């Protein structure tokens, strides 16, 4: 973006690239090298390439300010913020994440019991079996590429189970996910969106005729304002599960195990106290928050003497907010007893619907890996690549251990 192209409400001194979202891989650890430097800068700045398609927008770094924006649904909306529907010339909503109150409230109230801690806890047996299934494939080899062999297929297998879809479809879903989330090629993004929509609508029609106990069948029975959801609304919810269930949990698992592989004392502490995984996960979620979501300003708002205009986009960077030194003492230091109130799952009415399921997947992955494998490290000499985007993740993590 050229300086002359900037809107007149943007101070020139606040314009800079947003180093967490260039959609490229680097061997520089963003959590130890990039995020601390961003926290030395202004509380709000104008990123030149924040959004898909290298579009600009505001970046807010302080946890306190992020919480205020999360809570202010009158001034900061979510409707259409991902651009997936608009990208194919349509206007459906991703449910509930792209809804604003009062519609959001009605749909979210219908979904909350489906994703309650109790309901998600009932899935523990199935989730644990899936984890063991993948670990059994490499536990006796003395090595694995943890991202390829576990961090990606494990949560995707859970997504397919929840929606009652065949495990054989995994690679197809991963290919579509790459088109939607890992490329700036807008034509690929359009093709991927259309393909996922067609597939899910077919699955929804099948469940309408042949209902089961999967989440598609359950959604077809949910109500909003006294009526059942339409097939398009059920699709919007399934699309939300697709985006959240494939990429974000995979990213978290990879980042957490990178930490354990490079911090043997922390790995040993969890081996000595497996029950401590429940608390440790919260600190790892804080320290390695991965997701940047977006808001669209609906009316002019002044923040730190900067005017955010109606129509401006705002990046809600949980990696910044959860590593804010004004909110967390020594944020780069991992302390399993910290019990942090982090922003990894967002905050306020739009707090992540699948947070309870994600926690169970992360806890079970950690418990089962540590139970099955001896002490593991990153393969000597390998520089771990971090992919920087609105979902930060490690692209490859070769682990080795004594056979």
Automatic annotation (TrEMBL):
Lineage: Bacteria, Pseudomonadati, Pseudomonadota, Alphaproteobacteria, Sphingomonadales
Gene3D superfamilies, alphabetized: Cytochrome P450 (1.10.630.10)
Taxonomy, superkingdom: Bacteria
UniProt xrefs under InterPro entries: Cyt_P450 (IPR001128), Cyt_P450_B (IPR002397), Cyt_P450_CS (IPR017972), Cyt_P450_sf (IPR036396)
One of the record's GO molecular function terms: heme binding
Any single Pfam family the record assigns to this protein: p450
Family from the record: Belongs to the cytochrome P450 family.
PROSITE patterns (UniProt xref): CYTOCHROME_P450
Alphabetically ordered keywords of this record: Heme, Iron, Metal-binding, Monooxygenase, Oxidoreductase
Organism of provenance: Sphingobium cupriresistens LL01
Name this protein carries in UniProt: Cytochrome P450
